[in-house]
Amino acid sequence: MHFNACSFECLNLRVLRFVRFVRLGRYSDLSNQTEPFELQKGSGRKWTKERDLSQLKQCREYSIDKFEVIRIAGKHPFLWHDHWPVKNYAKIFECLELVDEIANEAMNVISRIRGIGAKARSKVDVAEEFNSDGSVDQPVPYIAVHMRIEKDWMIHCKKLEQKSNINQICSSKEEIMERVAHITGLQQPVVVYLAVADSLLEDNSILSGWKDGLVPYEKKRLGVWDIYKKYPYLIQSAIDYEVCSRADVFVGNSFSTFSSIIVLSRTQKLIGLGITSACGVGVRFASYAYNILGESRGPKMWMTDMSAPSLQSISYGTSNVSCYSNWKAR
């Protein structure tokens, strides 16, 4: 991946007057293929504020503006650093942008989901609010479920439950379906997109057993597998991230980093709309944790605690989620 050097500096220094966009792309896209600037990040879980400051001072002494490529090296560099306050880490989402190719692929998947949803709604005469020109103000809604039931996750979550003495981490397919079915305020029929790592999935029946009105689809049944299979696993995850992030309702696991980051970005969107609490309100961009029982037998409503002093809950997961972002406490 490549980063605009000045953009990276703005992320580390949090100097907003230097904010530009960081884009993920290919090395072949670069016009000036200089030697990369080697950036050591995320040495396990031992990265400190002092290392942050030392590295920033080094970047000031040796200007990184002349470099077009920054190579991030180190263990777990994707979640540096656990000691950042959540509200600072959330600023990254204001500086990140998918390259057009990946963004377009994600929008093709979303368009396919909404198209199928529109057909399902037309069959049962769901009333839409049309404008005078025949257009619709709001696109057909859909639900995205980060369905973590793959074999690698089930091994990990069971060990984590034993180690932490928490029984709210693993969820079976049946439990997920049951709780999603009890989300209140859903206008049905509605497409439920299942974001799942197909290559690690041992259960081939994830599309069966859903409540009437919930129309489940995964990549192959949706007819978009040709889009995904062109890319390596991480790019497939980036597409799924965008599809889940843009869903009208997102349901994930609060002990999954992928789910947690999606909820963080969605909470950031709600805050931008002036919404700091989704308690008892059916708002767009609502998020839920299916591994925790909420009201009316449904999943627990979930907004990121923006006042948290570190990324502990995002990095490692938590069973303490709520429908309030606690933004005012920052």
Describe the 3D structure:
The protein has two domains: 79 residues, no CATH class; 230 residues, no CATH class. The longest helix has 24 residues. The strands form three sheets. It has a six-stranded mixed β-sheet, with helices on both faces. The protein has a two-stranded parallel sheet with strand order 1-4. Helix 4 packs across helix 9. The protein is an alpha/beta fold. It has eleven helices and ten strands.
Helix share of residues? 25-40%
Give Rg in angstroms. 21 Å
* Biggest pleated-sheet summary: 6 strands, mixed
Spell the H/E element sequence. Answer: HEEHEHEHEHHEEHHHEHEEH
Low-confidence stretches: 1-21, 130-135
Helices and strands: which structural class? Answer: alpha/beta
Query: Would you tell me the overall average pLDDT?
Result: 81
Q: How many individual domains?
A: 2
Strands in their spatial order, largest beta sheet: 7-6-5-8-9-10
Number of strands: 10
Give the N-to-C terminal Cα separation.
Answer: 32 Å
Shape: globular
Strand content: 5-15%
Count of alpha/pi helices:
11
